[in-house]
Amino acid sequence: MSTEQGSSSNYRRSLGTVALTAVGLGSIIGSGWLFGAERAAALAGPAAIFSWVIGAVVALTIALTYTELGSMFPKAGGMVRYGQYSHGSLAGYLAAWANWIAIVSVIPGEATASIQYVSSWDFGWAQGLYDGKELTGTGVAASSVLLVFYFFLNWFAISLFAKTNTAITVFKVVVPALTAGALLLAHLDTDNLTAHGGFTPNGWSAVFSAVAVSGIVWAFNGFQSPLNMAGEARDPGKSLPKAVIGSILIALVIYLALQAAFLLAVPAADLSQTGGWSGLSFNSPLADLSLAWGLNWLALLLYADAFVSPSGTGMIYAATTSRMIHGVQENGHLPGVFGRVDPRTGVPRPALLLNLVVAFVFLAVFRGWGSIAEIVGVATVISYVTGPVAVMSLRRLAPELPRPVRLRAMPVIAPTAMVFGSLVMYWARWPLTGKVIFIMAIGLPIWAWYELRKPWAELKPHLKAGAWMVTYLLVMAFVSWAGGEEFGGRGYLAPGWDILVVALLGLGFYGWGVRSAWPNPSLAGVTAEMAVAVADAREGKSNLEQMAG
């Protein structure tokens, strides 16, 4: 038995469709619903409603490509493996690095969200946790305690995680729904939709930018959590697609209700005093509105949920990121210790500890929910683009592999998903796109340490197959810099034409990426592993039939 097989066998296949849907929904409904409505409204005004719909369409389109991949390879840390299987080490590592950065930074973001809400409490010590822009030293210390709590719950067993998370997710769905309903009943000012700059006070470009930087991508990014837990799914072929698609659609309904409630409940006087939607600044948006309309009970519930919702998501991401680190190690880009899974509990404890350390670093550097949300949004989109390319590449390279989920429309869905991902990256605005692409480059020395020692003949095909992704990131950074002024660029591309250019670039790099895939050693290894698993299953079935006979 290989090391990979041995470590993976320590995982417990105990999660069904309901538990996996709870994982996805619990990841999606974290701190995004506490702050996303305000930040989206500040950017896009009442048209923020459309930002949530666009974000859901983008997430669902991309998620469909990953459900096929997740059902093909039901392995822990699935999202960091697919690019490696289709294109080898360079593209696979860049995709894994982007995905890990996007997910691991969510964990301190959730802790930050909880403490930021606490800062609205009417106590001197609470108000000293947040200075209006970022956490204070005391706030960082309090957030650190929450980080330890998230990881503590994951330390002992996957069964404890599943039971705790399902209960928390029920609470996390009920409270946002109750919040939206209560605010709509308390105050419903339809003039807010047309006054103060109109329905689109900052233009449609702001509606698109809100998708990338207001926490919407952050929110829907949770769809990948069931995929990263695929190694613990009982029937991944059926449960994974149901969990992924179901969690996105349920969350969209909740987010639309919350956005509508926020838009209609903001006092007109506040909008007048701040000069419109862009001037709004709440430490605890929904709780502050609840207090403004005398819903003290709701404010207290929101303050409590400000711990429960982010903590539930932080706990989930602590679990999924540890599986991602395990996957990166099995890809050959981390020391062997991070591939160890405790045989008694089924938890990859060394990976869990590494992520805790990295979460502390992010917490120290990015102390505000908004700044972390921006980084997460762009890094997430970068990690997304490998899914559409990988799914069609593997259909070409390995058509014989079992695909429990196989959509006939995938040849259309995959390039569409690539275009959507490219557009969201562009909408994030320069210089943010450039900054996050630079963060992607920071991870390359780790790849170089493991790969550049290999003989040139062995390394060359990995470089050739990964060239499309490196070039894609550089070109997207350039287009973002040169693009429309409404998206932070220099204005060399006229409005409308810039969108067309980005869409065509997405299609062009999609074609390059699919053509550059090759039957690399990682694909050969997982194919052999799957063949052994199928043979073992057939042998076990035959033995049972003989015993029954």
TrEMBL record:
Membrane-spanning parts: 15-35, 47-69, 135-157, 169-188, 203-223, 244-269, 289-308, 350-369, 375-395, 407-426, 432-450, 462-482, 494-512
Keywords from the named record: Membrane, Transmembrane, Transmembrane helix
Keyword Transmembrane helix: yes
Main location per the UniProt record: membrane
Localisation per UniProt entry: Membrane
Coiled-coil residue windows: none
Pfam family of the protein (one): AA_permease_2
Membrane-topology annotation of the record: Multi-pass membrane protein
Official protein name in the record: APC family permease
